[in-house]
Amino acid sequence: DVKVTQSSRYLVKRTGEKVFLECVQDMDHENMFWYRQDPGLGLRLIYFSYDVKMKEKGDIPEGYSVSREKKERFSLILESASTNQTSMYLCASSLSGQGLYEQYFGPGTRLTVT
Amino acid sequence: DQQVKQNSPSLSVQEGRISILNCDYTNSMFDYFLWYKKYPAEGPTFLISISSIKDKNEDGRFTVFLNKSAKHLSLHIVPSQPGDSAVYFCAASVRRIQGAQKLVFGQGTRLTINP
């Protein structure tokens, strides 16, 4: 079974703080993704990575950065947290290649920025 | 601009009846579609998928129908069970030759199965 774990289930941070969200997958997947889930908006892609040290912007990258130093680990960084970044953050991973679409998700981190 | 839309935020169905969840898309380049199910405090889990070359895919109680001309897909659950109560997300993808296959998600529909 694919296992995707996220470092925290719940996190409370103050405005302006630097925030790190960590994600680890144990299935040797090439691709990793960060989404945020907000009511009425579904899941929106922030950033993704298709290889170590490689990254690509998703649909809403502003205010975020990412780091992938090892294949199994993908970090999402909020450089200066703001209240509009209060959300559920979901990490996912997938295999690379044509016809391989299924993504496996972690349990999510609910981040509150006060 | 929402490329994948689930226009019903919620749906309530009696146990044993059919649940029909709908999804519309605007990008005609989408060639693969997936449904995910999400329980509270858990990540989404893959449920069923369909390629654009098909119009129907079935897996047990779950069937997905694709109408390409209408840019519409639906998920049928028969018979509905209380454990099916969850939020369902529709997702779509444009095939990329290399690299990650990105998914575009709809807003989700909360399905409640009443005993």
Describe the fold and architecture.
The complex is a heterodimer of chains A (114) and B (115). Chain A has 114 residues and is an all-beta fold. Chain A is globular and about 40 Å long. In chain A, a hairpin with a 2-residue loop joins strand 7 and strand 8. The model of chain A has no long low-confidence stretch (mean pLDDT 93). Chain A has one domain: Immunoglobulins (Immunoglobulin-like, Sandwich). In chain A, 0% of the residues lie in helices and 56% in strands. Chain B is an all-beta fold and 115 residues long. Chain B has one domain (4-96, 105-114): Sandwich (Immunoglobulin-like). In chain B, 0% of the residues lie in helices and 52% in strands. Chain B contains no helices and eleven strands. In chain B, strands 2, 4, 5, 9, 10 and 11 form a six-stranded mixed sheet that branches. In chain B, strands 1-3-8-7-6 form a five-stranded antiparallel sheet, with no helix packed on it. In chain B, a hairpin with a 4-residue loop joins strand 7 (62-67) and strand 8. Chain B is globular. The mean pLDDT of chain B is 94. The chains are: A mainly beta (114), B mainly beta (115).
Biggest sheet features of chain B: 6 strands, mixed
Write the CATH homologous superfamily of chain B. Answer: Immunoglobulins
Q: Please report the two chains with the greatest interface, counting residues with C-beta closer than 8 angstroms to the partner's C-beta.
A: A-B, 32 and 29 residues
Overall 3D shape of chain B: globular
What is the CATH topology assignment of chain B? Immunoglobulin-like
Low-confidence stretches of chain B: none
As a whole number of angstroms, the C-alpha radius of gyration of chain A is 13 Å
What is the CATH H-level superfamily of chain A? Immunoglobulins
Number of domains of chain B: 1
